[in-house]
Fold:
Amino acid sequence: MAHDTHDIHRSRTEFEFIKKKRATEMRGQLTSFAMMIFLTLIAFTLVAADFSNYLIVPIILLLAAIQVVLQLYNFMHMSNKGHGMMAFFMFSGIFVAFTIVLTMVTIVWW
Amino acid sequence: MSSNSQKKGFGATIWDYLTTVDHKKIAILYLISGGFFFLVGGVEAMMIRIQLMKAGNDFLSAGTYNEVLTMHGTTMIFLAAMPILLAFMNAVSPLQIGARDVAFPFLNSLGFWLFFFGGIFLNLSWFLGGAPDAGWTNYASLALASEGHGIDFYSLGLTISGFGTLIAGINFLVTIINMRAPGMTYMRMPLFTWTTFVASALILLAFPPLTVGIFFMVFDRLFGANFFDVTMGGNTIIWEHFFWIFGHPEVYILILPAFGIFSEIFAIFSRKRLFGYTALVFATILIGFYGFMVWAHHMFTVGLGPTANAVFALATMIIAVPTGIKIFNWLLTIWGGNISFTVPMIYAVAFIPSFVAGGVTGVMQAIAPLDYQLHDSYFIVAHFHYVIVGGVVLAILAGTHLYWPKMFGTMLSEKLGKWTFWFFFIGFHLTFFIQHFLGLMGMPRRVYTFGADQGWDLFNAISSAGALLMAIGILILLVNVVMTVMKGERVGNDPWGDGRTLEWAIPSPPPFYNFAQTPLVRGLDPYWIEKMEGNKEGMVYAEPLGDIHMPNGSFIPFVISLGMFIAAFGAMYHTDGHAWALPVLIGGLAITFGSMLVRSLKDDLGFHVTKEELIADNERIQREARALEGGKKGGLK
Structure:
């Protein structure tokens, strides 16, 4: 109710600052977009060049992991402020899942 | 709404509790139903001890013994310990962070009713052809061979109540991340809130593996899948992995809130701020992480190989480090404190040696070669009862005494509380200490009887006598509860006189909106800070008095859970070829999804408590507080 109304008045400096920040963000997005296309190209080239599967599979998995991180940070706003707890939980979850899969693969099915 | 304080009829009260979304009332629901299942599990424990009282006893048949044993473990873990801890989490942690409710009040109620119906479903197995009988771990090779519907009751019941627990965990995570009062930074959160937070994170990460495992189990048993059937190319060990990937964090889900309760008690009754608060917080987080890296220590004798056993043995031993940090911090909190030995404090002091004993036997079992000797013997039974009864149950009893005034506005009798404590504590050590030696003498766990020539008679008789003392202790607690409720002597905000955290700054029980104005937190132990600075109100405020937005109660969570309860019967009896089973399954799911649809389509925007109502309510609270002052001084001393 009464507590929830917000009025936004920006000074000239604030406006300049936000403009600059958005420009930086945009540049980051474009860079990571280019990188993602490049990573995809590498993946396709690897397959087309007919390397051994033992080389291709781990490299593609690695590239995929990099892409996920780029996606999360530059497009899904995890680089912005206030996402620390979210990142902590995501990485804990990934870590737990990874150790479990690793153990399963190495001690149950190997 | 001042109408809230008016006396209600019996039917209206029941309806109020069926539809409530208030975290304090849901806490009471959790406490009552968890307490009920605790008694059920306790009766099962007594039956086990009566059966093992003497050699060759025939009180229970072998098959019934397996059922009683399975249901004792399952009930105590899933339906008693966890819900009672959830009761304290619900009752206390929103108050400790200065919130008006949890983040999702509707889901809070849904979580409770799912747990409740899951628990009822599981226990109905006693009346419908036999309870589960494959142990609480439900190992697949046993479970798949089990006749009748016992295992189906287990898997479907735990699926339903597992949904409830998962929902509760997520709810607390969101609440603690988002709803802390201004100034309540993470490193100012009371330890009980911290342990609630970490335990909720463990729930979030640990319950999915259980759900997956049980899902496979349901498909194997009811729909002809072969996940665990070795003869059909399945792998029976995978169940054990799934179960323990869940099961080990589960024991930390139980023990961490227990640690939280004791941390509060040590600080309150030593009248000192917690020694090493930061270390305690990081030890809690560390225990949470390690909890996921040690599950295979339950499976040393499966034959995972020396490398896996060595890795998991080392990881297990590392857990003793953060736990040791906690123990020393508690000891140093008491050190030099102005100690008062109230009932909660006695439990807390008794907890330290009991739990350490359990921890030390735990490290013994972490040594894989030694575990080959101890595995599946009564030594293991003694160990986990030392950590669970000596840790979790003592915390539950301590928490019941500590938070009873905050939850119900009355004080449990200290005198009867001490009787409970001594009966329970002596009984507990009598029952379980001697079981270490039974284990070393070779008595295997889960056996329904033993021979007179095996030399186990005396120790088993002593163990059963101890169980009787524990039962007497719990009966005294029940008498205490009934007497306290009958007497109904109201107490003030801070009945222990030395409360440190925000929940003691507001009336007992708190008004339904908790805080008329959101408090401003100026440091660790905010209420203590204000008291020490002579602030009579006990709080400084972060906002002016204004209208408060509150959620409406809802009957829908009950109906959603009821639908799943009905559907579970359909799914189970479908395999017997009953014609009615499929319609029941579909009907139950229709009720569940239909009520979800109603919830989604019907906007429920809640209501506002106006400023005028708040002022009127505050006057009532002041009047009652003055009446308390004028009459016999409430609370301790």
User: Anything to note?
Assistant: The CA atoms of residues 2 and 620 of chain B lie 9 Å apart. Chain B is about 65% helix and 0% strand. Chain B touches chain A through 24 residues (CB under 8 Å). The longest strand of chain B covers residues 548-550.
